[in-house]
Each structure stands twice: as structure tokens, then as C-alpha cells.
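ok so i was messing around last nite and threw this chain in just to see what happens. nothing serious, just curious
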Amino acid sequence: MKIYSVNDKEFRAYGRVLDVDTEDFVKAINNHEAVKEGVVYEPSVAEFEALPLSAIMKDKIYGEQPIEFGHCSGYNRKLNAVEYHRSSEVDIAATDLYLMLGKQQDIEPEKFTYATEQIEVFHVPAGTAVELYATTLHFAPCSIEPGKEFRCGVILPKHTNEALSKIDRQAGEDKLLFANNKWMIAHEDSGLGKDGAFVGLQGQNLEL
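result:
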């Protein structure tokens, strides 16, 4: 599997590298204890939201829209699922990591399936902040090597990933709605189907 850099032209279809100082965030998250196993996602961390970087993101990237600044960290080498939002997501690599990315435009209409062979992999160097456009399919970052923890800051509009209120999830794109501002397509091997995720990834559950 070919691995690109977020600094390569191939990344332009998915997002852009942001020219921001991430040093304080990297120091803050790397002072946290290591994740023991699996992947941990916290949508909002008060310590990160108090950093000057958070105010910059709110004002400059999200146009003064309220945001949440959390993290996704742990150990992962598989695709498992893809998700998208009605907004950009900012990821900040505190360690080197990989992102598996696709395009919402390649989801099969009406069926809402997606072929995993269309996924591309990008290396994000430690200290790099990237904006993933709203149409970019993504999921948990991947570790650079087995057993090595990744740490990634995640910034999204406030309330993203919170539990849904009542909604008819039986028709159309609503079947994919998994949480507030989160549409997801899972692979059958991921086990996410038992949690109510729509299973529609076709092909291999990609693994690095």
C-alpha cells in the first residue's frame, strides 16, 4: 500500500496543512499517561480548550463557531470504518501517525456502500495540524508501527459526536447517522454493527 505525505499534492483533494504553532498542545497531551490498550476518544478536554491554539482555531478556521478540542489516542492499524461530518475536522498529530482517507463522492448512491480499495494513506508528521474537508472520509488515526501509541488532537464544531435525539434512521442517508454531526459506514469485521453502525464497507478491512 503506497503511503503519501500530507505535504504531497495528493493530499489536496482531502484537506490542507495548517500554518499554526502546535507546540503547547503537543507538550500538553504528551504529559498525559499512555493509553493502556485500544483507542480512546475524548471530544472535549478543558486543558486543550484553554490553550491559545483553541481560540485561534475557533476564530480563524471555524469563523467564530463554537468548537470542541479533544483527542483520539491509542493503538490502531486497521480501517474498520469511515465517517464524515457536515464540517471540516482539524487533526493535530502529537506523534507521527497515518490517516486512511477517502472521498464522500465515491460512496455509492442509494446503496451507501463504499469500496475500501479507494482509500489512500497519508503520513502526518508530529507537530503537524491538518484540516480535513467535510467531504473527506476518515476514522481513527493509525500507529506508525504495531504497539506504538499515536496521539492526535481533534477539533470539531461543539456537540459533534454527542448522542442523537429522536430521528428516523430507516431511510436514505439517515441510516448512516451514528451520532451528532457524524455519518458512518462500518466494515463487517469491525464489530461496530452491533453498536448500531451501518455496515457498508466493501472489500478488505485495510490493515497497515
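not much to say yet. The chain has a mean pLDDT of 96.
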